[in-house]
Amino acid sequence: MLLEGRTAVVHGGAGRVGGSVARAFAAEGARVFLAGRTLASLEAVAGAIRAAGGSAEAAQVDALDEAAVDAHADAVAAAAGGIDVSFTAVSHGDVHGLPLLELPFEDFARPVATALRAQFLTTRAAARHMARRGSGVIMTITATTARLSIPQVGGTGVAFDAIESQCRQWACELGGRGVRVVWLQTTGLPEAIAGSDVLQPGYGTGSAAMTRDELIAWNQGKALLGRLTTLAEVGRAAAFLASDHAAAMTAAGLNLTCGQAPAR
Description:
By secondary structure, the chain is α/β, with parallel strands linked by helices. The chain has helices at about 15-25, 40-50, 65-80, 105-135, 155-175, 210-220, 230-240; strands at about 5-10, 30-35, 55-60, 85-90, 135-145, 180-185, 200, 210, 250-255. It has one domain (about 5-190, about 230-255): 3-Layer(aba) Sandwich (Rossmann fold), CATH 3.40.50.720. The strands form two sheets. Strands 3-2-1-4-5-6-9 form a seven-stranded parallel beta sheet, with helices on both faces. The chain has a two-stranded antiparallel sheet with strand order 7-8. Helix 1 runs parallel beside helix 2 (about 40-50), helix 1 (about 15-25) crosses helix 7 and helix 3 (about 65-80) packs parallel to helix 4. It is globular and about 55 Å long.
């Protein structure tokens, strides 16, 4: 198995992305520590992992709480003998559907500030333990919003750009200490889009709003493969990226965008 004997911390472990990644890590042999704000949801994911024969523990940790993040990393390292992988996938409080001309600055800045703080705190907490051991992998997830020109996405694209930039800086400072810093870049994830009864913003298409199916079709139209990334693909790619098979990768993202081209 790719991650046999490894210890992995997953912040946002109760979310669709974090849960998928946690299950993939566990399936590849990792001992998984789930962290997030809602303990009941975390325990549900941990229970499913254990039921499938994996190892998982859950703890209530707010990724924006510096003391809590540090304390959790210290506790995991003490219990497991170290931290091998840290994956962060927390929500950023994004606001979509309004042009920047009408968007309050607070709504624009929230996802940027949240993303940068969560990524910094979780990275630093894990990296302190990894650097002492001379090995480890820091991971996160971004999306094509960081590169495409899409209207009415507020601060989302800026937040993903900022995450990638921060990861590159961490990578150049940690590389000499044996720690890799990488990210997954995806399309929108159909399984994470709200149900068919919830209208989505028009995103500059000329429509005031789109249904879930229309939003998925619009995104698929920009992908060379004619489809979007699945959660299962995110999990499998994360397990690969955390493993020794990707040992030469740092300061880089794994492209899972199905060849999604820039918006026109």
